[in-house]
Design a protein that fits this description.
The complex is a heterodimer. Helix content of chain A is about 30%, strand content about 25%. Chain A is built from 12 helices and 19 strands. Chain A has helices spanning about 10-20, 30-35, 70-75, 95-100, 110, 145-150, 185-195, 220-235, 245-255, 275-280, 300-310, 330-340; strands at about 5, 20-25, 40-45, 50-55, 60-65, 80, 120-125, 130-135, 160-165, 170, 175-180, 205-210, 210-220, 240, 265-270, 285-290, 295-300, 315, 325. In chain A, strand 12 and strand 13 (about 210-220) form a beta hairpin. By secondary structure, chain B is of the alpha+beta class. Chain B is built from 16 helices and 18 strands. Chain B is globular and about 75 Å long. The chains are: A alpha+beta, B alpha+beta. Chains A and B meet through strand 8, helix 6, strand 10, helix 8 and strand 15 of A and helix 6, strand 9, helix 7, helix 8 and helix 10 of B.
């Protein structure tokens, strides 16, 4: 497969102008999305990296799309800040642009929201090689069409992202994790249901099927003990407390639990959908964000079961057809035509 | 059959307004300086009626504008001359409120505050809280990506919309998004929010609900200057706190609010409201840190709300500030620019200078936590030339916001009012991309025609005049 490298805005424009079909690639951590298909040229953006602006006091940074999240998070950390949507696959080399294109959030999205809640602006090259900006670099902005939100989960359909601006937050001063086991799946699900509506400010609320809940809280060290106690009271269980929980959650957000599976998928889940999902032949899996986000490792028959069940999903690794279902034609197709009239980019 | 005859077949008498006296209330929204006479107003009660009306407009090439309570301050729901107004206030049912799923499915005419009221028994609420929330509708909130005092921490309307059923300008009904917090594929519902009705009309909206914070800690701090209040905001942020809201009011708006609702505010140069919220143990600890920060910020007085009643009193003055300013002046323009938080002081100094230069008073109320300014430019529309001077001053303020790295609007939208300034913030290619998307979804240019896009309707693609953007079409 032909592969070209672009490490500047001009090189991206040049690539778009000269290649009829392109597939952007960042760190390659989601190979199903960055493997070129028949007739496509791979546009490697791993050189398009670096933080362009970062004002800790503004809670905002702007970086090139190919910047590894690891690099961004390291910089944010030196100012006590983080990406609250907790993007996955950081250790595997995930980049900012790839994370946006895939639309991925991790376990800590429970507290403040997902990727879509933190993206503020984008600069991208459309299918005609034009540079388009959407959104801005301030935390509140309602001017113009929000092209930045259009990029979330777009799989690169509308253009090659070059620059992205994001909102960030202060990292919790301290964290604790409570792990509680139940004897039956229904009990775990009932507890999950109860916790979702309580004002406990959980950083993460995960169901590890069949019967375990994991909850993470963050805040002042002085208050965490009392908050943990209250959580145990609500659940009427002592559970297991992980005080040094950082390494644990890093493995979770890097989807280490999928390691052995050939196919990795993201499924937009829901509380009422969990019993259905649990009846399918899915492999290792974890429901995040109070049950709204499932990452699962599958064998081919598991993927087929998802398709047959009509359950929306995105394949990150291990299969060619990545998105199910296709975006709604009457709204998606005109936008695609407007921004990528020659069909240079993936999807549609 | 003609357009009106077909409309008559769709809508019974009383729900199709065509007489002059009936149309008059729909000639403008809250930006009353602009008025346009529509051909007709329809009052749909079901989404099928909206869809049929839009299809009719498409067939006959009649422009249409959807509106709710008309609280837009940017002329976003100003009718198109000779076009149709879809007044959606009667579509005000909450179709589903599912506390377990933490969602509410609503019709576009539902009033914002109603959702929180209905969710309250379940310990949930709908977070976006524009000051207009007792009257503004969710359809309008979606169109304008409305904000409020809590955007820094909780985001804007777009962040709280999980799914939309939309009728496109061609009359096709599409479902965007889903009922989960997460989705796959392009975030099309996220993209629709904030497009100001240019890409279609929302028929049904799925909102995420959040657990209502358990505890609040709300304080009011008095300062001898606006700058000192602004610096206090920076100190709060630097301490690592993440308040739910931080609001500043200047002397003029304090006086106005006090005269209107008697909130009991101290009469000083600037007031800062800070509100912490969260689990009670956490808020207790945060409050200790906040007390230290306030102590070092040069506040001349700090009042802490000791009860929900006292908390509401603090907010009452702030929320009433816009309408209260009406007592100080026969007319005013509300501006809505955003600047990076660190440039607030600079922006306010410059606004003060411009106010002097133009000889018009400017009251300042703003969401300090997210840099969203609301300068209220006071003028008297009966004095010749004063409106024009006020508009020019308001324009200077907008350009200033963009120059400082901010935005033309934080929550009120571009509408007709600010479209002339879009080129200050966006490059021709950015605007062209917006036009191309608009044109692809709305080839006849019918949906909320004449809003947001400065050259819209005049591009070669629209068969009109050549504009500055023309060469880019080549």
């Amino acid at each position: 497969m032909p592969e070209i490298f672009a490490s500047s805005l001009e090189e991206v424009r040049e690539a778009v102008r000269t290649h009829p079909r392109l597939r952007p690639k960042g760190g390659g951590s989601k190979p199903a999305l960055s493997s070129p298909q028949e007739g496509e040229t791979l546009l490697n953006l791993s050189g398009l990296k670096g933080i362009l602006e970062y004002a800790p006091e503004e809670f905002v940074f702007t970086a090139y799309a190919g910047t590894p999240l690891k690099e961004i998070e390291a910089t944010l950390r030196t100012h006590g800040q983080y990406l609250p949507f907790h993007p996955p696959l950081v250790e595997q080399g995930a980049t900012l642009g790839g994370t946006v294109a895939a639309g991925l959030s991790g376990p800590m999205r429970e507290r403040f929201g997902g990727l879509r809640d933190f993206i503020l602006g984008v600069r991208f090259v459309d299918g005609e090689g034009r540079v388009v900006r959407g959104g801005g670099k301030v935390v509140k902005n309602a001017a113009g069409f929000p092209f930045h939100r259009l990029m979330v989960g777009s799989l690169g359909a509308f253009g090659v992202m070059v620059e992205l601006s994001f909102k960030v937050f202060p990292y919790p001063r301290a964290t604790r994790t409570l792990r509680v086991g139940f004897s039956k799946p229904e009990e775990a699900l009932a507890a999950l249901e109860g916790l979702r509506t309580l004002p406990l400010d959980l950083l993460a609320l995960d169901l590890v099927p069949p019967t375990t809940l994991e909850m993470r809280i963050g805040g002042f060290p002085e208050s965490l003990g009392r908050r943990l106690k209250r959580l145990q009271d609500v659940l009427k269980r002592e559970g297991e407390v992980l005080a040094e929980d950082e390494a644990h959650w890093e493995r979770v957000r890097d989807l280490a639990f999928l390691q052995e599976s050939p196919i990795w998928v993201k499924v937009p889940s829901r509380l009422d959908l969990i019993p259905t999902l649990e009846s399918l032949p899915l492999g290792p899996r974890r429901y995040m964000a109070g049950g709204d986000l499932l990452y699962a490792g599958l064998e081919p028959h598991g993927l087929k079961a998802l398709r047959d069940g009509g359950i929306p999903h995105l394949v990150l690794r291990g299969a060619q057809e990545v998105l199910f279902p296709s975006p709604p034609e009457a709204f998606f197709a005109p936008i695609k035509r407007a921004l990528d009239p020659k069909g240079r980019f993936p999807l549609g | 059959m003609g357009f009106l005859e077909e409309l008559r077949a769709l809508f019974p008498p009383g729900r199709l307004l065509t007489k002059e006296a009936e149309l008059a209330p729909y000639e403008s929204d809250a930006l009353t300086a602009y008025r346009k006479r529509p051909l007709a107003v329809v009052l749909p009660e079901r989404k099928e009626e909206v869809v049929e009306a839009v299809r009719l407009c498409y067939r006959h090439g009649v422009p249409f504008v959807a509106r709710g309570s008309g609280t837009s301050l940017s002329g976003g729901s100003l009718p198109v001359e000779g076009g149709l107004v879809l007044a959606l206030n009667r579509m005000n049912r909450i179709l589903r409120l599912d506390p377990k799923a933490r969602i509410a499915v609503v019709e576009p005419g539902v009033v914002n505050l109603e959702v929180s009221r209905r969710a309250a028994p379940f310990g949930l609420y709908y977070a976006p809280d524009p000051s207009s929330q007792p009257i503004s509708t969710l359809g309008g909130n979606v169109a304008f990506n409305s904000g409020g005092a809590h955007c820094l921490k909780y985001g804007m309307t777009a962040n709280h919309v999980l799914a939309l059923e939309v009728v496109t300008p061609k009359g096709e009904v599409v479902h965007l998004g889903g009922q989960s917090l997460e989705g796959v594929g392009p975030d099309l519902h996220g993209f629709f929010v904030g497009t100001e009705g240019l890409l279609g009309v929302a028929l049904e909206i799925t909102l995420r609900l959040l657990p209502k914070p358990e505890a609040y800690h709300t304080l009011l701090a008095a300062y001898e200057s606006l700058e000192a209040a602004g610096n206090a905001v920076s100190q709060v942020i630097q301490s690592g706190l993440l308040p739910g809201a931080m609001e500043i009011m200047d002397r003029l708006s304090i006086e106005a609010a006090e005269a209107a609702v008697k909130a009991g505010y101290p009469q000083v140069e600037a007031l800062l409201i800070v509100e912490l919220e969260g689990p009670k143990e956490e808020v207790e600890e945060e409050a200790k840190l906040l007390a230290r920060v306030m102590g070092e910020s040069g506040a001349t007085e700090v009042r802490i709300a000791q009860s929900e009643g006292e908390r509401q009193a603090i907010w009452k003055g702030r929320k009433a500030a816009f309408s209260a300013v009406g007592r100080l002046s026969p007319d005013y323009i509300v501006q809505d620019g955003v600047v990076p938080r660190s440039r607030l002081g600079e922006a306010l100094r410059e606004i003060g200078r411009l106010s002097q230069a133009y000889g018009l008073r400017v009251a300042n109320v703003f969401h300090a936590g997210d840099g969203n300014l609301h300068p209220l430019v006071l003028y008297d529309g009966k004095k010749p030339g004063e409106l024009e001077r006020a508009e020019a001053l308001a324009g200077e303020i907008l350009k200033l916001c963009v120059r400082l790295g901010g935005s033309l609007t934080g929550e009120h939208g571009i509408g007709v009012e600010k479209k002339g300034y879009m080129a200050e913030m966006f490059a021709p290619e950015d605007l062209l991309a917006m036009e191309r998307v608009k044109e692809a979804l709305d080839p006849k240019g019918l949906a909320n025609r004449g809003k947001v896009l400065p050259g819209y309707g005049q591009s070669p693609h629209q068969g009109g005049l050549k504009t500055d953007l023309g060469e880019l079409y080549a």
